């Protein structure tokens, strides 16, 4: 062929088309395609032929990006009620290895618990915290109990000490909470369920941090979700209570935990530092992103707008978390919270919410150091 001669043109086709075929030849016109053949699976083990997730994690030591990408978005499930005859027992720790995690994640028990967390997230979708909702006597009782625990903090001031973390006065608070825990449970239990207190108390007392290490993290927060799940299985709280469980109960729990964190300088348990979402919490980001789905004006990038944070943090959990982080951490937001900064670049809250649910499953519920403290009894069975 003469060097100046133009290459042969593909024959005209009956309709306009684009070269989207992965092969080297267009199936419509026989012309060459613009895309090279994808590499075979063996040539590069890290090649994943799907788009990147909504939540783009920074490169970090654990490199969990692929695991999160491959994880399906968790779906809501109706809680399976616990049927009599009951055999309540003191729940125990069982998980000690990654094999145990694999067994847990393949069980219907785990799927139902995670489905409950997703249901809570869906219940608050597109709602402000102040929106009217069904508030049952059980929800009111739980809120009253947490308010008593907040009052305990005011009655037990921190002791003077030089250590940055872990004020020992927290142990006094924890002892007082633990000693009253059974009476708190009995406020919620009907006569035929009074024996359930033995099983509910350990989940409850493990929801507020560890008294020997004086720390708190996402494992303790997960125990609080597990305690609520136990109440749901016992039908003490029902599906119509879910919105209030987030907007009334969980909000009050978050108020207590922030007060404990600031008053007694709780150590972050198992924190990833800048590589984590937050030093202490995960669930308020899930519930908070659900609140903002389809919001007309607030987008994920709105977390950088100080006016929005100031005016709406009291109504939206996600924004209140950002405000709290900015209060307790100094310096540039992108430096002390790079993951949250990355998430702010995601186009919409639905993608943020689904990405966070996947991340919660992988980063919290699949981690042995966190789940080794999880409890199993007759309500949440191993």
UniProtKB/TrEMBL annotation:
<keyword id="KW-0697">Rotamase</keyword>
<dbReference type="GO" id="GO:0005634">
    <property type="term" value="C:nucleus"/>
</dbReference>
<protein>
    <recommendedName>
        <fullName>Serine/threonine-protein phosphatase 2A activator</fullName>
        <ecNumber>5.2.1.8</ecNumber>
    </recommendedName>
</protein>
<comment type="similarity">
    <text>Belongs to the PTPA-type PPIase family.</text>
</comment>
<keyword id="KW-0413">Isomerase</keyword>
<dbReference type="InterPro" id="IPR043170">
    <property type="entry name" value="PTPA_C_lid"/>
</dbReference>
<dbReference type="GO" id="GO:0003755">
    <property type="term" value="F:peptidyl-prolyl cis-trans isomerase activity"/>
</dbReference>
<keyword id="KW-0963">Cytoplasm</keyword>
<dbReference type="GO" id="GO:0000159">
    <property type="term" value="C:protein phosphatase type 2A complex"/>
</dbReference>
<comment type="function">
    <text>PPIases accelerate the folding of proteins. It catalyzes the cis-trans isomerization of proline imidic peptide bonds in oligopeptides.</text>
</comment>
<dbReference type="GO" id="GO:0008160">
    <property type="term" value="F:protein tyrosine phosphatase activator activity"/>
</dbReference>
<dbReference type="Pfam" id="PF03095">
    <property type="entry name" value="PTPA"/>
</dbReference>
<dbReference type="GO" id="GO:0005737">
    <property type="term" value="C:cytoplasm"/>
</dbReference>
<dbReference type="InterPro" id="IPR037218">
    <property type="entry name" value="PTPA_sf"/>
</dbReference>
<dbReference type="InterPro" id="IPR004327">
    <property type="entry name" value="Phstyr_phstse_ac"/>
</dbReference>
<dbReference type="GO" id="GO:0007052">
    <property type="term" value="P:mitotic spindle organization"/>
</dbReference>
């Amino acid at each position: 062929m003469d060097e100046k001669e133009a290459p042969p043109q593909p024959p005209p086709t009956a309709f306009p088309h684009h070269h989207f075929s992965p092969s080297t030849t267009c199936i419509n016109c026989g012309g060459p395609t613009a895309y090279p053949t994808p590499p075979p699976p063996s040539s590069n083990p890290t090649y994943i032929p799907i788009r990147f997730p909504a939540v783009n994690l920074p490169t970090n030591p654990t490199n969990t990006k692929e695991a999160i990408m491959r994880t399906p978005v968790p779906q809501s499930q109706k809680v399976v009620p616990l049927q009599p005859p009951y055999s309540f027992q003191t729940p125990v720790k069982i998980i000690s290895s990654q094999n145990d995690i694999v067994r847990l994640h393949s069980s219907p028990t785990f799927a139902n618990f995670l489905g409950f967390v997703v249901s809570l997230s869906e219940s608050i979708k597109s709602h402000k915290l102040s929106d009217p909702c069904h508030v049952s006597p059980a929800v009111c009782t739980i809120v009253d109990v947490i308010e008593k625990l907040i009052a305990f903090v005011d009655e037990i001031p921190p002791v003077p000490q030089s250590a940055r973390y872990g004020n020992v006065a927290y142990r006094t608070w924890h002892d007082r909470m633990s000693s009253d825990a059974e009476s708190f449970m009995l406020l919620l239990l009907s006569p035929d369920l009074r024996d359930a207190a033995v099983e509910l108390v350990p989940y409850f007392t493990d929801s507020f941090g560890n008294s020997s290490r004086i720390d708190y993290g996402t494992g303790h927060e997960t125990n609080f979700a597990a305690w609520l799940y136990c109440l749901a299985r016992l039908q003490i709280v029902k599906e119509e209570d879910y919105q209030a469980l987030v907007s009334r109960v969980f909000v009050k729990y978050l108020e207590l935990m922030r007060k404990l964190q600031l008053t007694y300088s709780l150590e972050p348990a198992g924190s990833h530092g800048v590589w984590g979402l937050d030093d202490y919490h995960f669930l308020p980001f899930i519930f908070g992103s659900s609140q903002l789905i389809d919001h007309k004006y607030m987008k994920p990038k709105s977390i950088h707008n100080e006016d929005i944070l100031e005016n709406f943090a009291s109504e939206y959990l996600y924004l209140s978390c950002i405000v709290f982080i900015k209060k307790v951490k100094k310096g540039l937001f992108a430096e002390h919270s790079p993951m949250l900064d990355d998430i702010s670049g995601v186009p919409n809250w639905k993608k943020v919410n689904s990405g966070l649910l996947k991340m919660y499953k992988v980063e919290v519920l699949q981690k042995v150091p966190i789940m080794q403290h999880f409890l199993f009894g007759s309500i949440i069975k191993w």
